[in-house]
Design goal:
The protein is an alpha/beta fold and 850 residues long. Among the domains are: 1-162, Rossmann fold (3-Layer(aba) Sandwich), CATH 3.40.50.300; 166-308, Rossmann fold (3-Layer(aba) Sandwich); 486-564, no CATH class; 572-719, no CATH class; 751-802 and 814-820, Arc Repressor Mutant, subunit A (Orthogonal Bundle). The chain is built from 27 helices and 34 strands. The strands form nine sheets. Strands 4-3-5-2-6-7-1-8 form an eight-stranded mixed beta sheet, sandwiched between helices. It has a six-stranded parallel beta sheet with strand order 9-16-13-10-12-11, sandwiched between helices. A four-stranded antiparallel beta sheet has the order 19-20-21-22. The longest helix is centred in the C-terminal third of the chain and has 32 residues, at 609-640. The chain is elongated, with a radius of gyration of 48 Å. The chain starts with a helix and ends with a helix.
């Protein structure tokens, strides 16, 4: 068999010394094995290292580039190839390692993955066949030592102890997991659940899963490594050599689905994951999350094995013929399914590539197109396309069949590949949608890397990488947006146990910021915690505010004091005095209607006494100046009402005017009780005696009327507010203050008086006793003809309607004519006095006669 010949040939070569020294460096995690391999690689003239993850290969590639320069180092993976022409040091995934006998050094990382059911046969092949000209280094767990001794007897075994200790700390609640911890889950749903809970408890977490693209994983890892978040939620892929600053590893479960069944992790798998805690000489801890059931607890034997690094040795490695024959499809399938000839090797479960090969070989339409060994080899390469979508062998086989149909015996055209890549270039969508697109673009990135499949390979590969980068950036943004609460993270990192250490500042919009993250806002002189803040954060936020906000309030108080010196610095609303959309004071009733006082809002009581007094004086001064301007006319009436020489009737009338906003109907004013001297005094105070009303024109100004209405409401009165325009439509309601109702409309008192005076002037200047009154001026004020007629009738005018035109007559209608009769003064009837009851004898006689 080819497998037997290949294995024996390698052993013979090793025994004859035709290959360099083979050394197996074995030990638990955190023993510096990878660091040693990098040193040995850089110490040779050329070399390559195979890693289990593209992410790990990229990490080491960056390190070697920093030492040797970008022109001397290559990165070779299934989806990405950076191959300078004269590159001498290669960093690869295990599947992409080139078989080059000219390389001086060869390294294989995580060699114990040879026992992995899915990828083990690849690592076994590299373990058996790949050698460096001068040195070969096998890195892995101590569990693989018996297999190396049996299969690679020429290898020198070197054991390395762990630099730090690993201790079990039991189960902890998720809310009590310490910072710099990794929570390990075993499904995407569980990863998202843990990340969401950490966002609520601790401000967020980075997410690392095998389903993410390498760029997204890099971005999430960088976010954790930089300290932007203190927690990492990952699947068991974290155990594959990622070097992170993790202090504690918490298992969200101890079972996983391995593709065939739900099973408990092996002790070696537990140790591989738990070993991520502690780096170099800093100790680490591991444990589980409490509340997940007894099955999620480590047994005593498992804890002992993990802490002491004692695990059952591997008894077999998975193997599949790496050099099958390509005569026919049946012979190829037979060689790939053939069992090994050695007891240390075992046949792995059928992989996705072999399953797709079987499915398509059974399809006559596809199998008939595969003729000749070259076509069989090419067809096998197409079937070996990784199932990045993870949709199963049937779905993946359909994709491979379409690819083979398009590929045929030639190449994929650049336009065809470019169109397929462009269809996936859409960074919109949720996390699940973006993951699907990234999986699809990884398939095309793999296809574009094949020089025998794609024309313009370099251009198409660059396009695929660019699209994957854009999608990965978008996915990183969605993950961060969903699972990271930056405000809480900043609080936890900056404050620690002392909230006074938080750097608090105020934005121009009034938001209170900590490192540009909002924690609340100021409503006037009151701090309001952000409603989206977690309940656990509110105490910390309020403590920070107590330390830092007095200084911010003092600055706002200075701005308020300066604004109060300006006429328009404050405004008076129904709620009180407002500055910068903030209520700073309320009005309280005084001794009289016009004597309201200002009372500062309780929030200003937090200001220092001196600052508070300055604010009170400034606000009082502004209100005094405002009321002097607006209420000056009414205050003159109030002062005159206290003068005894005016007489009781005039003083009573002045008080009525004040209580009615400077307006009184003439029929209820008691004007007839005033003598000429009192009427003259009334005119000198600015009160006009109109045909229908007594009013102060200056009191009808909008600012004066608004302030008077506000003061009236303070004393329990509820007068109707003046309408914004004139005339107002009242539709059955009473007229607002300062207006006279005219049918369904209301007109301001002074304008109504102007119309009545104009009507009297027309009447007096007319030759007859009936006159035509032009309604044009009334209509210019917005009054309807009916409302104007109602005003004239109220003023004592009577209308005479013209006769209609006779039948057959033509011409304009005659206008209505008006005359005026002074309103009759109602004379009160004398009170009825009942007659006195008659008494005496004559009265009795009269009664008898009736």
């Amino acid at each position: 068999m080819a497998s037997q010949r290949s294995l024996q040939g390698d052993r013979s070569a090793g025994a004859r010394g035709e290959t360099g020294n083979v050394r197996a460096v074995l030990g638990p995690t955190n023993t510096g094995k990878t660091h040693l391999a990098i040193e040995r690689l850089c110490g040779h003239s050329s070399g390559a290292i195979g890693f289990p993850l593209r992410l790990l290969a990229r990490e080491v590639y960056d390190r070697v580039v920093a030492i040797k320069g970008a022109s001397q180092v290559a990165l070779i993976t299934g989806e990405e190839r950076i191959e300078p022409r004269h590159a001498r040091w290669l960093l690869c995934t295990a599947e992409a390692m080139p078989q080059r006998p000219d390389l001086a050094f060869i390294g294989l990382d995580e060699a114990q993955l040879s026992a992995n059911p899915e990828r083990g046969h690849v690592f076994t092949d590299r373990l058996l066949h790949t050698r460096g000209r001068e040195e070969t280094m096998i890195l892995g767990s101590a569990t693989i030592e018996p297999m190396i001794r049996a299969l690679v007897p020429e290898a020198e075994i070197v054991s390395r102890p762990r630099f730090s200790t690993l201790s079990h700390v039991g189960a902890k609640k998720l809310s009590r997991i310490p910072p710099r911890s990794a929570i390990v889950a075993f499904s995407a749903e569980q990863v998202y659940t843990m990340a969401e809970m950490l966002r609520r408890f601790r401000g967020g977490a980075a997410v690392v899963m095998g389903a993410l693209s390498p760029q997204t994983r890099n971005a999430q890892v960088a976010m954790y490594q930089s300290g932007e978040v203190d927690y990492l939620v990952a699947t068991d892929a974290i155990g594959m050599g990622l070097n992170l600053d993790i202090h504690h590893v918490a298992f969200a479960g101890l079972t996983k689905f391995d593709g065939q069944r739900q099973r408990r992790l092996t002790t070696a798998e537990m140790a591989q994951i738990a070993g991520r805690a502690g780096r170099h000489h800093r100790d680490g801890t591991f444990g589980t999350l409490s509340g997940l059931g007894d099955s999620a607890e480590f047994t005593d034997d498992e804890v002992y094995a993990i802490e002491e690094h004692r695990f059952a040795p591997l008894t077999r490695l998975f193997w599949r013929d790496a050099e099958p024959r390509f005569d026919t499809l049946d012979r190829l399938i037979g060689d790939l399914s053939a069992p090994p000839l050695r007891g240390e090797l075992a046949t792995p479960p059928e992989g996705i590539d072999l399953a797709v090969l079987r499915l398509l070989a059974g399809d006559a339409a596809v199998a008939d197109t595969v003729r000749g060994s070259a076509a069989v080899r090419r067809f096998w390469n197409v079937c070996s396309l990784p199932d990045f979508r993870q949709q199963g062998s049937d779905t993946h086989a359909r994709f491979v069949a379409r690819l083979w149909q398009d590929l045929g015996q030639g190449y994929l055209g650049a336009d065809y590949v470019a169109q397929a890549i462009a269809q996936l270039d859409n960074p919109a969508g949720d996390i699940h949608t973006l993951q699907g697109r990234i999986s699809a673009i990884r398939s095309w990135a793999y296809i574009a890397q094949r020089p025998d499949w794609v024309l313009a390979r370099e251009d198409m590969a660059a396009r695929a990488r660019a699209v994957e980068t854009r999608l990965s950036d978008a996915l990183h943004a969605r993950l961060t947006e969903r699972f990271v609460n930056r405000r809480t993270t900043v609080l936890m990192r900056k404050a620690g146990t002392d909230a006074g250490l938080l750097p608090v500042r105020l934005s121009e919009a009034g938001a209170v910021l900590v490192d540009d993250e909002p924690i609340g806002h100021l409503e006037g002189f009151r701090f309001v915690v952000d409603p989206l803040a977690r309940a656990a954060d509110r105490k910390l936020l309020l403590a920070a505010a107590e330390r830092h906000l007095p200084g911010l309030f003092a600055k706002r108080a200075a701005l308020l004091t300066a604004a109060a010196a300006q006429p328009d610095g404050l405004s008076l609303t129904a709620q009180g005095l407002v500055w910068d959309e903030t209520l700073v004071a309320r009005l309280v009733p005084g001794r009289g209607l016009l004597d309201a006082r200002v009372e500062l809002e309780p929030a200003l009581a937090r200001l220092p006494a001196a600052v508070r007094d300055d604010v009170r004086d400034a606000v009082d001064g502004w209100f005094a100046r405002h009321t002097d301007r607006a209420l000056g006319p009414l205050r003159r009436l109030s002062a005159a009402a206290e003068a005894p020489d005016l007489g009781p009737d005039l003083r009573a009338l002045l008080l009525k005017l004040i209580d009615n906003g400077g307006v009184l109907p003439r029929e209820t004013a008691g004007l007839d009780r005033l003598d000429l001297r009192q009427r003259e005094a009334l005119r000198r105070l600015g009160v006009r005696i109109g045909g229908l009303d007594l009013f102060m024109p200056t009191a009808l100004r909008p600012a004066t009327m608004r302030l008077w209405l506000h003061l009236a409401q303070l004393r329990g009165k509820s007068p109707l507010a003046p309408p914004p325009g004139m005339p107002a439509t009242v539709e059955g309601r009473a007229a607002p203050v300062g207006y006279r109702r005219l049918g369904d409309q209301a007109l301001r008192i002074d304008l109504a008086d102007r119309l009545v005076a104009e009507a009297h002037r027309c009447r007096i200047g007319a030759p007859g006793w009936r006159v035509f009154l032009d309604p044009a001026k009334a209509r210019s004020m917005g009054l309807s003809t009916a409302s104007y007629a109602a005003l004239l009738r109220t003023a004592g005018f009577r209308v005479a309607m013209p006769r209609a035109l006779a039948d057959g007559a033509f011409g304009p209608h005659a206008p209505p004519l008006w005359d005026w009769r002074p309103p009759r003064v109602a004379v009160p009837a004398p009170a009825h006095v009942p007659p006195h009851a008659a008494t005496g004898a004559f009265a009795a006689l009269a009664g008898l006669m009736r």
